[in-house]
TrEMBL record:
Keyword GTP-binding applies: no
Gene Ontology molecular function, alphabetical: ATP binding; phosphoprotein phosphatase activity; phosphorelay sensor kinase activity
PANTHER family: PHOSPHATE REGULON SENSOR PROTEIN PHOR (PTHR45453)
One Pfam family cited in the UniProt record for this chain: HATPase_c
Keyword annotations: ATP-binding, Cell membrane, Kinase, Membrane, Nucleotide-binding, Phosphoprotein, Transferase, Transmembrane, Transmembrane helix, Two-component regulatory system
Protein localization: Cell membrane; Membrane raft
The protein's name: histidine kinase
GO biological process: cellular response to phosphate starvation
Domain Histidine kinase residue range list: 246-462
Catalytic activity: ATP + protein L-histidine = ADP + protein N-phospho-L-histidine
Length: 472
């Protein structure tokens, strides 16, 4: 292309040169010379020819210089605009001392500045949106019209049990459950939102509530997939069913005993004084067991829901002694040795009823599951930050596999011994519910045949000045 321009330029100069020669041949007669100008004044003739070609070369060089300079400016301007287009331009570009380019770069710099501001605002909004999506408790995936995943949050990756690439890729790389992929395909086909409860086969058939939401119009749009984890909901439903079943079973046993012995008495056993006393004793025992079961069931229901508490200073030693007094018949029956370690006047701010439930249930377990002539040790301490209570026994102990399950409702390690002694299987769940609601912790260390140690740690509560006790 460049050589064509040079050829055209040269031909134009050649035409001018021929015209100059023709014009100079007419100078001789016009000046009154008898000979042509090249013969009469060869210096002038050849000088004018030389000046012509010198001017041609100089003007061509000047034009080439200006053209190269213009092309360089055009290249820089093009590069600058391309950088603006791809959001990679510097914040300010300075032009050479040329009015036309200065005006261009002033406008371009303003466009670049506005683009930078828009990009910063857009990045901030995108970052806020990503944080929002990633903190949602539900799985979210956005699929574009090409079936490519535009974004997905961490919860979605957890539910699908696959690492989701941040780069665009087919959603089929992540979705392996037919029910979910079919839900997405239906939404893409008819441009309507669809909903279904699905079990994710890639995550141990985890139940999820799935929504495939169409966002767009009839021509174009995208699909937003939302998964809500139903595992905890289904577990809670199953727990409720198990609870109802266990309560029904536990209530049926003492009721059956009471009804059976009452019927036996009515059929004539009441006339035998010895049988009468024996059967009434059994009826009373089963009635007490039934009362304990109903009381503990009500306690479980109460602690599972918010309820008002009334914290006040409680004398720990007096509460422990009172519970030991209630358990004294069983302690004497097993010839157990009890030891309490802690300041006699120590007080701790807590709801008195809940504090009694903690101590009573821990001590009851320590007595029921202890060996004959065993030991029950109670220790308690108080610091500026926490109160700690330890109940240790030398009983049958708890197998390692059962140590987490002892806090489940109605779970018993030794069912025969528990029922024989009137245990309901709700004592430790009640203690754990109270401790957790108070922001504390209960731990268990146990060895089969050696004994168990329960440690309850509770945070210190502040009590109004009017209720303050000396040691608090």
């Amino acid at each position: 292309m460049r050589w064509r321009v040079q050829l055209i330029r040269f031909l134009g100069a050649l035409v001018l040169f021929v015209g100059l020669l023709i014009w100079m041949t007419q100078w001789g007669p016009a000046l009154g010379l008898q000979e042509p100008l090249q013969d009469a004044a060869p210096g002038i003739y050849w000088g004018m020819i030389g000046v012509f070609w010198v001017l041609y070369v100089l003007l061509s060089a000047l034009r080439d210089w200006r053209l190269r300079r213009h092309r360089r400016q055009m290249a820089l301007a093009t590069q600058y605009m391309d950088q603006i287009l791809h959001l990679q331009a510097p914040e300010l570009m300075l032009a050479e001392d040329q009015p036309e380019w200065q005006q261009f770069y002033q406008v371009a710099n303003q466009v670049n500045l506005q683009t930078h501001r828009f990009k910063v605002a857009l990045d901030q909004k995108q970052a806020d949106f990503d944080r929002l999506i990633n903190h949602l408790p539900v799985g979210v995936m956005v699929i574009n019209p090409d079936d490519m995943v535009q974004m997905a949050n961490d919860v979605m990756a957890t539910l699908l049990d696959v690492p989701i690439d941040s780069e665009p890729h087919s959603y089929l790389d992540d979705v392996k459950t037919f029910g979910l992929s079919n839900l997405i395909e239906r939404t893409e086909a008819n441009h309507h939102t669809h909903h279904a409860e699905i079990k994710l086969v890639q995550n141990n058939e985890r139940p999820v509530d799935a929504y495939a939401v169409w966002i767009g119009d009839a021509q174009a749009g995208q699909v937003v997939v939302v998964l809500y984890d139903l595992a905890l909901v289904r577990a809670a439903e199953q727990m409720q069913l198990d609870f109802v079943g266990n309560v029904s079973h536990e209530l049926k046993t003492p009721i059956t005993s009471i009804a059976g012995f009452a019927e036996t008495l009515l059929n004539g056993a009441k006339d035998d004084p010895k049988a009468l006393t024996q059967f009434l004793t059994i009826i009373l025992k089963e009635a007490n067991r039934l009362n304990d079961l109903v009381t503990d069931t009500i306690s479980v229901a109460k602690f599972a829901n918010p309820h008002p508490i009334h914290p006040e200073p409680v004398n720990v030693r007096k509460e422990i002694d009172r519970c030991l007094t209630m358990l004294k018949p069983r302690i004497l029956e097993r010839q157990l040795k009890t030891k309490v370690e802690g300041p006699d006047d120590l007080t701790f701010v807590f709801d008195p009823g809940e504090f009694e439930d903690i101590i009573k249930n821990l001590l009851t377990n320590a007595v029921i599951y202890n060996h004959h002539q065993g030991n029950v040790d109670v220790r308690y301490t108080l610091t500026d930050k926490e109160f700690q209570l330890q109940v240790e026994d030398t009983g049958i102990g708890i197998p390692e596999d059962d140590q987490q399950r002892v806090f489940e409702r109605f779970y018993r390690v030794d069912k025969m011994r528990s029922r024989k002694n009137g245990g309901t299987g709700l004592g430790l769940p009640i203690v754990q519910a109270i401790v957790n609601r108070a922001g504390g912790e209960i731990t268990l260390h146990s060895q089969v045949g050696v004994g168990s140690l329960f440690t309850v740690t509770l945070p210190v509560r502040k009590v109004p000045a009017a209720q303050s006790a000396p040691n608090q």
